[in-house]
């Protein structure tokens, strides 16, 4: 394992991915499990480095049941992971047996100003796109009426 200048240790497989992300600061964004409820910060976050152990019965090759990478997104039924092989993997939650958090690369959601700003801008963009589609629809805003 390599030791980073911040004091957080990353495994060798995560180092190239960390560098591709622009070598974000890893110090001070650790999980907080104890203390005042408002001060606790735990759970998976976007861009976390993780290891996933999956049910080997779901794979013809048992070596495929292990994946390391960066968490891109987390949905109700699946996870999107950028693997150490550089490929994007979509993993069904139902085949996951164990998940190990290797390191956080972003602050907790509530403290992540960059992510909150992105989501706000994304909502504006989507809203404008929906308005544009409604205007271009024939019948202008009467598409919900029957007959």
What does this structure look like?
With about 150 residues, the chain is of the alpha+beta class. The protein folds into 2 domains: about 90 residues, SH3 type barrels; about 35 residues. About 20% of the residues lie in helices and about 25% in strands. The strands form 2 sheets. It has a 5-stranded antiparallel sheet with strand order 6-5-4-3-7, with no helix packed on it. The chain starts with a strand and ends in an 11-residue tail after the last helix. The N terminus is likely disordered.
Give a short overview.
Helices cover 20% and strands 26% of the residues. It has 147 residues and is of the alpha+beta class. It has two domains: 1-25 and 44-106, Roll (SH3 type barrels), CATH 2.30.30; 109-141.
Which features does this protein show?
26% strand, disordered N terminus, two-stranded antiparallel sheet, single chain, 147 residues, five-stranded antiparallel sheet
Write the layout of secondary structure elements.
Blueprint: E1 2-3, E2 9-10, H1 15-20, E3 49-54, E4 66-74, E5 78-83, E6 88-92, E7 96-103, H2 113-136
Antiparallel strand pairs: 1-2, 3-4, 3-7, 4-5, 5-6
